[in-house]
Amino acid sequence: MSNLESINPDKREKVKKIISTLQLRYGTTTKKDSPFYILISTLLSQRTKDETTDKVSKQLFLKYKTPDNFNKTPVKTIESLIKSIGFYRVKAQRIKEISNILITKFNSKVPNNFDDLVSLPGIGPKTANCVLFYGFGIPALAVDTHVHRISNRLGLVKTIKPEDTEKHLKPIIPQKYWGWINYALVSFGKEICRPIGPKCSECNLTKICNYKKQQEKK
Length: 218
Ligand code: SF4
Prior knowledge:
Blueprint (H helix, E strand, L loop, with lengths): L8 H18 L8 H11 L4 H14 L3 H5 L3 H7 L6 H18 L8 H5 L6 H12 L8 H10 L7 H8 L8 H14 L18 H8 L1
Helix pairs in contact: 1-11, 2-3, 2-8, 5-6, 9-10, 9-11
The site of iron/sulfur cluster has 13 residues, from helix 9 and helix 12.
């Protein structure tokens, strides 16, 4: 469990500033959806633009809503519905496999714990944490490419792999913000702290950003 008072004062102030700045920009609440929708839409989002994922996921769930619906649908039909998504053949197969496992092992329900979620084919820590938070409202810190990149740029962590970022962020981000910080940093990463060409001139975090300081020294 994170406890801001127990971390070093500089990092504590940095975390507070980041949270307050992001709250001003993105608010304090996040959208929730059914665990099965979050599971499948996050699976579809891997290596795909968010706009495409949102559109395809919504269209898909207009037709099919449950593991049973997908289980009874031929894989070719699923492929045809998601073919604007990257790696759509593999993902269609995954949807079939996951649906079948949910039916046979989990009584047609999405499990609400990390270990069972990552046991499903194609489901890694990021997707599992998204399902826990956005689907079940359970505190979980999903580290995707935006969260990983920005946490390193700001100097909250110094990591190479997203799994390590999650491990090092958890002790310094209060638990009540774990789910929200994913939403806030993903939004921030798309708008301001972009992977290439971050818009530092429009950012209110320049004074505490390690990346910005390094750029200025060059
Ligand atoms: S100052 Fe630039 S690099 Fe740092 S968080 Fe803001 S946009 Fe990202």
